[in-house]
Amino acid sequence: xxxxxxxxxxxxxxxxxxxxxxxxxxxxxxxxxxxxxxxxxxxxxxxxxxxxxxxxxxxxxxxxxxxxxxxxxxxxxxxxxxxxxxxxxxxxxxxxxxxxxxxxxxxxxxxxxxxxxxxxxxxxxxxxxxxxxxxxxxxxxxxxxxxxxxxxxxxxxxxxxxxxxxxxxxxxxxxxxxxxxxxxxxxxxxxxxxxxxxxxxxxxxxxxxxxxxxxxxxxxxxxxxxxxxxxxxxxxxxxxxxxxxxxxxxxxxxxxxxxxxxxxxxxxxxxxxxxxxxxxxxxxxxxxxxxxxxxxxxxxxxxxxxxxxxxxxxxxxxxxxxxxxxxxxxxxxxxxxxxxxxxxxxxxxxxxxxxxxxxxxxxxxxxxxxxxxxxxxxxxxxxxxxxxxxxxxxxxxxxxxxxxxxxxxxxxxxxxxxxxxxxxxxxxxxxxxxxxxxxxxxxxxxxxxxxxxxxxxxxxxxxxxxxxxxxxxxxxxxxxxxxxxxxxxxxxxxxxxxxxxxxxxxxxxxxxxxxxxxxxxxxxxxxxxxxxxxxxxxxxxxxxxxxxxxxxxxxxxxxxxxxxxxxxxxxxxxxxxxxxxxxxxxxxxxxxxxxxxxxxxxxxxxxxxxxxxxxxxxxxxxxxxxxxxxxxxxxxxxxxxxxxxxxxxxxxxxxxxxxxxxxxxxxxxxxxxxxxxxxxxxxxxxxxxxxxxxxxxxxxxxxxxxxxxxxxxxxxxxxxxxxxxxxxxxxxxxxxxxxxxxxxxxxxxxxxxxxxxxxxxxxxxxxxxxxxxxxxxxxxxxxxxxxxxxxxxxxxxxxxxxxxxxxxxxxxxx
Length: 814
What we know:
Blueprint: E1 2-3, H1 15-18, H2 32-41, H3 56-61, E2 71-76, E3 83-88, H4 93-102, H5 106-115, E4 120-122, H6 135-144, E5 147-151, H7 156-168, H8 171-181, E6 194-198, E7 210-214, H9 220-228, E8 232-236, H10 241-260, H11 263-266, H12 270-279, H13 287-298, H14 314-328, H15 330-338, H16 346-374, H17 378-419, E9 434-438, H18 447-461, E10 465-471, E11 482-485, E12 489-493, E13 496-503, H19 506-515, E14 520-523, H20 528-540, E15 544-547, H21 552-560, H22 563-577, E16 582-585, H23 588-597, E17 604-606, E18 635-640, H24 649-661, E19 666-671, H25 677-683, E20 689-693, H26 697-705, E21 709-712, H27 721-728, E22 733-736, E23 751-754, H28 759-771, H29 773-787, H30 792-807
Parallel strand pairs: 5-6, 9-10, 9-14, 10-11, 14-15, 15-16, 16-17, 18-19, 18-21, 19-20, 21-22, 22-23
Antiparallel strand pairs: 1-7, 2-3, 3-4, 7-8, 12-13
Helix pairs in contact: 6-8, 7-17, 10-12, 10-16, 10-17, 12-15, 14-15, 14-16, 16-17, 17-19, 21-22, 24-28
């Protein structure tokens, strides 16, 4: 005998608690007769409907001999209103009335069900219906209920946790719980629990995905007796967020069909046929139902249909991208023609469709905002911002589904550890930390990208669960420890062409972070990927931390020559970083700057960076530059970094030209590239200057060691990796008194600190090193000693310890 013991008809009030509160929708839209037929087609020998607090659906099909009347009862713990759902089987109308009178108090309800011999079970035991369920509630349920449901709408992971917890119960455990809560079980051997299964279907898409089977044939009483005697077997499996989301789309679709009679359009509108194939259970359609319009749908737009433009609606984009999706996918064409009877993995396919459509909507919105902003068309910009609401509504079922499943996972893990026998619990603090680090720069050559690449290497060496998540369609995505997503769109900044903005495929990233079970989200950028990181952390209920790497307001002001752009950037950054659990900064100067601007002091953590002291070493000095620097008496000055005006390189040009004009013997070696390189080379024509472009690895290490002093005139850098690399290579440094680099050296011991934005100060500092070889050598040796203990692994370990600070404040899964 088989029965799906948890399925809802159009009389159920459950959907309003899932997603349709704003739609004021009380029904699940499926006729009881349709449910009955589907159950029989799925091989169920007995059929029941467990609507919420009503039995009307069962009564409509009660004339069938294999139907028994049941309901899903909403009940509460009387002290705090924590809501539970209890499945009551094989009742009649009088018992239904009695149950409704008692259901406000779970203790009274359970006593009535037990006294009247009504088989009952706790539905989805680890799901918090109204967000009040806690460990004490669940422990009380262990004393109140013998039968527990493995729910087809919950995750298989949660079902396994429930099975594991129930199997761990002992007589001693129950005795402890009785003493703790003062509740005495009303049944014998309360540490032995029975399991049933039901699909908890609200849309008719997943009926009998999970069901209960007993190895005997007979009446419904035999089925229920087998359950009570622990002779039933649960079949089927749990669900995943993608499946729940498609069910929510289906409920919404069926609501609008119920309200506006959408099916009237299905016969002659391919888009509606397509949606019907995904979001409703149906028999394979005849080709003729979609055939007349199919070629026109898959081909060009119908006459008079507008191209995508500023005035295009989300519906127009939906139609256009369903068309494009179908063109690219034979399985989707088959769904359009034949319905979902031969559709295969529809949850994944529907995810694919929504992901593509939402990506197009996001791209379209970004284009509108960009054009409106630069064209000062503010009315159009506000219209575009209004489209954000439409995009949110489009993706809301996925946000809800992943959030519910993440919360279920956390609570399941927490309860599993709570019920574990004493002495077997994980006592190692921080074990299980797994970090997803979002960044919009990884494959480029810059300080942030270099730091992240070294962090990936350090994580491997130290056996840490750490992954970089980035978004660059043109880069290799097979590197271990890196997950590179193909962006929806790429935008280049005209004032900073090396830096790109990527519109991320949000749903794909959300699914990846849920599937990989990350415990922390880290954002290395406040850009689009950083916003995606923050949103994913909120949906999955994970701690989100960030690093403030780059002085973006100063860069914006430098690059646009517009002070207002700097202020606008500051307002955004203060909002963004105040959303974080913690903000990592690499210098006291950055710490002070953020707090002065309004970022909460309690969020900021100072985490100095390390340097690869083995790679950058004085022993790497060789003859690499001898040919270009033929004057052996001349001092080799080195600059490494982005060749851009915001690095104050115009001051370096002026200072170096002044030194050469006075007869100073020196070379200036410039490593790096950027928008100022051509102008800088032209400004230094006739001087002993050498431009080497981008260099990395051992080549870069040899260049450092083969020079005599390092010059870094920037006043905007938050840290300055290159200053550490130079000192590790045995070079004295010249830095300004503004920004983070000054904190990575000791003035007078490892180098010279000069006044920022001062040509004279920079010139004099360089000249002191050039004219005093003994001081230069002494400072170089001291610089190496200063940084030799600042290894990258040590800095990474310190940062990892800070993840663990938040680890204990968030629940963990088992």
